[in-house]
Description:
The structure holds 2 protein chains of 2 kinds. Chain A is α/β, with parallel strands linked by helices.
Amino acid sequence: MKYEAIVIGVSSGGMIALKFIFSVLPAGFSIPIIIVQHINANSDNEWIKLLNKKSNLTIKEADEKEKIETGNVYIAPANYHLLIENDKTFSLTIDERVNFARPSIDVLFESAAEAYKNKLIGIVLTGSNNDGAKGIKRIKELGGMAIIQDPKTAESSIMPASAIAAIEPDYILSLEKIVQLLIKIDNPIKQ
Amino acid sequence: MVLSGLDDVSQIQSRVLKDEIFAHELLQDLSITVTEMFRDQDFYKSLRENVIPILKTYPFIKIWHAGCATGEEAYSMAIILQEEGLYDRTTIYATDFNQQALNRAKEGIFSNAMMKEYTANYQLSGGKESFASYYTSNYGNIIMNQSLKKNIVWANHNLVTDSVFAEVHLILCRNVLIYFDVDLQNKVQKLFYGSIVNGGILCLGSKESLRFTDFFEKYTELDKKQRIFKKKY
């Protein structure tokens, strides 16, 4: 298997997008997924528990120093930046907001790019700011794959459009097509 | 930023080894001093509900803010203690190894731009007064009231290399240990355990844990979610 991790950055409109993705991704999907969803600094993790209930995969909040495991989905906690270390564990920090956001998509993507190099898939979904554009650029520079939600199909088009302006994406797709592509990448034989 | 003027990373090494002032400044630059007043409203709410009643049982109260950075949390604590009628019999030791941050904390001058957010934090955390009554605003900055500073002792203390300096009833060390590896966390927890009175309280950041240290069994969880622990007798 070539790809070892998928990072997803999503902002406004993200709840619906994530709910869709995880209602479709099948049990046994093996590439770990790490997500930054912009969210109010004071929100608790109840929405993650709800998302988990509706999913075939295990979705949880990323813990400090937790080891990234195959088949799991991790979401950055509110009000912390989430970074991936070279030994594939998580670090949380309370450093300054980046692009007015904590967690910031750029912070996750740039650290993930360093840790996974060309074995990483970066995905930018709906959102109304430009967080993620620098991060997806770094992923491409280090040989990873970039998938951007087609801005025409995104609830909020600014974030995917900013990412497309920053790089030449490998794919620009609707959510449905993104999920199909991920399933194919994870299990090319079955398809 | 002390690194300006250097061409590449390898130049840092030789200067760190030869130039003591440079090494010291680099260390300060690398330390994280981001902090907020009343960050995590639910924590401060729990502090008022679960910890203040315990503190009230002591004739005098000693609190240690370990890793206080620029002091926002120490001032938050002073405000709560004042509102609960405890501040006059309390000493807050607010420590950090970053002297520049400590100097700023001592001044108690913060940007006016943050006050809107801090006011909301304060109100949602169970604040009882008008937040604006705790500071004076001028020239785009605010200065905290002198009455909040009087019982705070600002001191340079390095959690890794310095030792126990007082016996305290409450330690707050929030979002400091996330930057430490497990061995170092264990070392610091040993220091904390030696500093807290029996029955005293330890508050960690909402993503920090005692679980991977030798001290998990030595505390009970007063508020599991807010990571508030009580040292067993």
